[in-house]
Amino acid sequence: TQLLEQSPQFLSIQEGENLTVYCNSSSVFSSLQWYRQEPGEGPVLLVTVVTGGEVKKLKRLTFQFGDARKDSSLHITAAQTGDTGLYLCAGGVRELYNDMRFGAGTRLTVKP
Amino acid sequence: SQTIHQWPATLVQPVGSPLSLECTVEGTSNPNLYWYRQAAGRGLQLLFYSIGIDQISSEVPQNLSASRPQDRQFILSSKKLLLSDSGFYLCAWSAFSYGYTFGSGTRLTVV
């Protein structure tokens, strides 16, 4: 059983559309991170959120951390083909060790 | 700036052979170091983490071991590989900054 459940597992949209992907858990996290991964490469950190209710924006990407620090969402406005990739969320439980637990990811395909 | 090097990029090994994957970090000291394995559809599974030299914690009982002989070097090993050890192995570091920096990964195929 995954500690973090990501949905949807797969998402295929046209360029210019908006989308939201979700990361849910029954556990409380000290911090939550979002990564994007290209095939054959390591994940690249997009954002870290640490405060319940926090909203962070990175250009067309908006990240929200749930008030109870158990869930998060990533919203992409006007998706571009360059947004294609695997989006992973990761939750931290123990700050000292920073040993993050990852969800299975949402594989996003943006078609031209 | 900090960089992380992981090698080799791809590896094909027969069942029963040994394994050694190496990861080194530059530009930082006393980093937390991690080994993850990624299987299709299951995200990243934490295998080992280390908060200092010779301080290794294992998350999953398995055919693998890890060592940290130097502050910025992390090694993943096996004495005898199994078919189930195939996967994409990722090394990462963090320095209490709430963010991981990953290496480019090693695709291991056990045949």
Describe, in short, the structure shown.
The complex is a heterodimer of chains A (112) and B (111). By secondary structure, chain A is mainly β.
Characteristic terms for this protein:
heterodimer; A: 112 residues; mainly beta; 6-stranded mixed sheet; 5-stranded antiparallel sheet; 11 strands; 0% helix; B: 111 residues; 7-stranded mixed sheet; 4-stranded antiparallel sheet; globular
Describe it for me?
- The complex is a heterodimer of chains A (112) and B (111).
- By secondary structure, chain A is an all-beta fold.
- Chain A has strands at 5-7, 10-14, 19-24, 31-37, 44-49, 55-58, 61-65, 71-76, 85-92, 100-102, 106-111.
- The model of chain A has no long low-confidence stretch (mean pLDDT 92).
- Helices cover 0% and strands 58% of the residues of chain B.
- In chain B, the strands form two sheets. In chain B, strands 2, 4, 5, 6, 9, 10 and 11 form a seven-stranded mixed β-sheet that branches.
List the helices and strands and how they pair.
The complex is a heterodimer of chains A (112) and B (111).
Chain A: E1 5-7, E2 10-14, E3 19-24, E4 31-37, E5 44-49, E6 55-58, E7 61-65, E8 71-76, E9 85-92, E10 100-102, E11 106-111
Parallel strand pairs in A: 2-11
Antiparallel strand pairs in A: 1-3, 3-8, 4-5, 4-9, 6-7, 7-8, 9-10, 9-11
Chain B: E1 3-7, E2 10-13, E3 19-26, E4 32-38, E5 44-52, E6 55-58, E7 65-70, E8 73-78, E9 87-94, E10 101-102, E11 106-110
Parallel strand pairs in B: 2-11
Antiparallel strand pairs in B: 1-3, 3-8, 4-5, 4-9, 5-6, 7-8, 9-10, 9-11
Summarize the biggest pleated sheet of chain A.
Answer: 6 strands, mixed
| Radius of gyration of chain B over all CA atoms, rounded | 13 Å
Largest sheet of chain B: 7 strands, mixed
- Helix-strand string of chain B: EEEEEEEEEEE
Number of strands of chain B: 11
Q: Which regions of chain A have little confidence, pLDDT < 50, spanning 5+ residues?
A: none
What level of helicity do the residues of chain B show? under 10%
Gross morphology of chain A is globular
How much of the residues of chain A is beta strand, in percent? over 45%
Computed over alpha carbons, the radius of gyration of chain A is 13 Å
Largest interface: A-B, 29 and 27 residues
- Separation of termini of chain A? 35 Å
Q: Structural class, from secondary structure content of chain B?
A: mainly beta
Oligomer: heterodimer
What is the number of E strands of chain A? Answer: 11
Number of helices of chain A: 0
Look at the structure and give the mean pLDDT of chain B.
Answer: 91
Distance between the termini of chain B: 38 Å
Alpha-beta classification of chain A: mainly beta
Count of helices of chain B?
Answer: 0
